[in-house]
Design goal:
- By secondary structure, the protein is α+β, with helices and mostly antiparallel strands.
- 33% of the residues lie in helices and 13% in strands.
- The chain has six helices and three strands; from the N terminus they run H-H-H-H-H-H-E-E-E.
- A three-stranded antiparallel sheet has the order 1-2-3, with no helix packed on it.
- Helix 3 packs across helix 5 and helix 4 crosses helix 5.
- It is flat and about 65 Å long.
C-alpha cells in the first residue's frame, strides 16, 4: 500500500510512516474468514460475551472482540445472525438510527433578508490541497431561497 501512495502522491513525504506500520500485527487485520470454524463455536463465544458487560456492545464491536479474544476469524454478518438469534431485543435496542427520531420543527423567520445561511464545500480541495484546489462557498436567504453570493477560491483559509 505504501508503494502505491508514494507513486500516486509524490508531493508528500511518506518515508516517516513505516515505523508505525511495523508496530502492527497485520495478521490481526486479515479480512478472510476461517472456513474451519463451526457455528457452535461462534454461538458459544457469543453466548459467553453476552453473559458479561459486552452484552451492551453492538455487533461490530462484539465481532472484533470475538476475533481478538476468542481467536475466531468469522465474518461480521455471522456474528450478527447469531446475536439476532440469541438476543433479538438487545440487538434492536442498540441499533443506531433505528430509534425514533425527533420530528422536524417548523422553520419560521421574520421575512426576507432576516436569516442567511452560509456554507462551504472543501471536498474538492483534495489531498494536500493540490490535487484539485477549489473551495466553494455560498450564501442564500432562508425565506426566498435566493442565492446571495457564490464564491470559488483556490484556498480554503
Amino acid at each position: 500500500m505504501l508503494d502505491f501512495l508514494k507513486r500516486d502522491f509524490p508531493t508528500y513525504s511518506w518515508n516517516k510512516y513505516p515505523h508505525w506500520l511495523d508496530d502492527f500485527d497485520t495478521s490481526t487485520f486479515s479480512t478472510h474468514s476461517d472456513k474451519n470454524v463451526t457455528l457452535d463455536e461462534v454461538k458459544e463465544a457469543v453466548g459467553k460475551e453476552l453473559e458479561g458487560p459486552p452484552k451492551l456492545f453492538g455487533y461490530q464491536v462484539l465481532h472484533q472482540k470475538i476475533r481478538q479474544e476468542h481467536f475466531l476469524n468469522v465474518p461480521r454478518d455471522l456474528v450478527y445472525a447469531v446475536m439476532q438469534e440469541m438476543d433479538p431485543e438487545g440487538l434492536e435496542s442498540r441499533a443506531v438510527g433505528v430509534r425514533s427520531r425527533k420530528k422536524k420543527q417548523p422553520f419560521t423567520t421574520r421575512g426576507p433578508n432576516w436569516v442567511h445561511s452560509a456554507d462551504g464545500h472543501n471536498k474538492l480541495m483534495g489531498f494536500q490541497n493540490d490535487t484539485f484546489p477549489l473551495a466553494i462557498y455560498g450564501s442564500i436567504d432562508t425565506t426566498s431561497r435566493r442565492l446571495h453570493w457564490l464564491r470559488v477560491w483556490t484556498n480554503n483559509r
